[in-house]
Each structure stands twice: as C-alpha cells, then as structure tokens.
Amino acid sequence: MASLSQLRIRTRSLFPGLLLALTIAAAAKFLSEHYGAPVMLFALLIGMAFNFMADQQKTGEGIVFASKTVLRLGIVLLGARITLGDIAGIGTSGLLTVAGLMAATIGFGFVCARVFSRGWRFAVLTGGSVAICGASAALALAAVIPANDKTERNVLFTVVAVTTLSTIAMIIYPVLFGFAGLSDAQSGFLIGATVHDVAQVVGAGYSISTEAGDTATIVKLLRVTLLPVVLIIVALSVARKDSGFSHVRLPLFVVGFGGLTLANSAGLIPAPAATLLVDASSWFLVTAIAALGVRTNMKAMLDLGWRHVAVIVAETVFLLALAWAAVSVGLAGA
C-alpha cells in the first residue's frame, strides 16, 4: 500500500508539467499539419514562450521528467520504424559510402569545434545530428554524453539549427541538383545522404520524382539505422574516458532502441503495432522537445554567439561537398 501511495504522490507531482508539455506538443502538431512547418520547431518556439513555468513548483518536476524520461522512451520506440531489410537495395558500395560520409562528418565536427573554440560535447552533438538524422539524433546523443551546465541550451540550439537548415535544403537542393544536370537517382542519393530530418528528405526527394523520392528515403533510413551503432560507440568512448572499459554500461534506452530495431527487422512486430509505436515515438519526442523548450531561456540561446552557427553550417556544407564528390566519382547514386 505504501508503494501505491507513493506512486499516487509521484503522479500528482508530475501531472501538471507533463500536461503542459503535452499541450504544447498537441499545438505544435496542429500548426505543423495545417501550415507545413517542422513540428519540432513549433514545439521549441511555443515551449520557450512558457519558460516562466520551468521553475514553478507545480510544473517544474513534470517538465524535467518530460525532457528526460519521456525523451528516452521516444528514442526507444524509434526502433519500430527501422528495418535492416530497407537497406538491401542500396548495395554494398552505397552502404559503405553512407557510413563513410557519416564518420567523416562526425570527425569534421571535432575539427570545427576546435577551430571555433567549442567543446567536444558540442562537436559530438552537432556532428552526429548533421551526419545521422537531425533532431532525433541530437536528442539521442544528448542522452548518452555526460551533461554539463551548457548541455540543454546546446541541445536546443542544435535542434533549431538542423531543423532550419533542413527546411532550407528541402527548397534549395532539388533546384541546385537540377541545374547541375544530375540524374534522379543521383539527386535522390544526395538528398537522402545530406538533408538532416526525415520529413524534409521525403519532401525534397518526391518533389523531383518518384525514383528520387524512393532513393532518398532508403538512404535516409540507412542513416537512421546506423544511429544505435553511433550511440554505442559514443557510450563506450565516454565510459572509457571516465572509468575504463571494466565499468562500461550501455544506457537502457540504447539497448531498448537496438532491441526494437532487431525485432522489427526480424518481422516480430506486426505492421499495425509498428505504426502505433512509431506514432507514439513521434508524440513522445515532440513532448520532450516542448519540455526542453520550456526549460530554455531565450537570452541564454542568444548569448551562444556566431561560433555555434559557424560549426553546424560548416558541417552541413562539408557533408554536401563530400557526398557530391562520392556521386561524381561513381561511388553512389548510379
């Protein structure tokens, strides 16, 4: 009975903050569906408008819970939208090319961070989000790397930046590739390999042709599929740096994400259930972003300065240049 009573008390303390985050998420979803703008961006901006609620006694605990625990649940459920079979058609050359592009971009993130006097955490966060899958990767990586006093604002900045750059790329890249005379397959590969967020990849690819859209989606899913691999590598690297491999413990949400991905790849999750889990993941992630927005002070974001912007723009341009070079020499998109 004591545990049941404690559960009720815990639920009461979390409910107001969770309700606030969920309400913001619902508003963001509505605006996104009706106006075509990225839902993550709406969730962030609306959440920031409620920053005064972050330190309120009634809502503070639930907001923290939404920004951490709900976030991890959302990342776990992301595995239901990934199957290893989706990448079979891209071929060994395409697979190696995409993996190489991702590794090079993350490595370049460390170079940029050093040039612009940013820390290694920011390098992992931005390099990983640009290389893999935008906002979702930023949230997943933030949950793996050790937090400090700058983590939350860096996460919010990264999500805003990659979402904004993805939207710009969705408009510009199809026109750019058309002027360059690239084939639909080449354009689709470049869009899938370089645009940060899934929704913008789909929008840009199918604006060219069905072939380009299909190719872009498969390449993008390949990048998303490699997210758990990157998370494990980062987790092991951080553990080694802090306490040696003898104390390595992968976060449970990483294990859950990987397990769900393997289960989905093996066909153990029925299609209706997978759709339900993916929808739930979307709601959880938007709710977590809304909560992070509430916890973010706009002045702190503005104080970050031009170096933060320079790092993520440089990473984006680097990835595009490298992918275009790979297509030009026939390594992918043939």
Stretches where pLDDT falls below 50 for ≥5 residues?
Answer: 243-248
Helicity, as a percent range = over 70%
Beta content: under 5%
Topology order in helix (H) and strand (E) letters: HHHHHHHHHHHHHHH
How many helices does DSSP assign? Answer: 15
Number of strands: 0
Broad shape: globular
Task: Please summarize the sheet with the most strands.
Answer: none
What value does the Rg take, in angstroms? 20 Å
Distance between the termini: 65 Å
Report the mean per-residue pLDDT as an integer. 81
In short:
The protein is mainly alpha-helical. It contains 15 helices and no strands. Helix 1 crosses helix 2 (39-49), helix 8 runs antiparallel to helix 9 (198-208) and helix 9 (198-208) runs antiparallel to helix 10 (210-225).
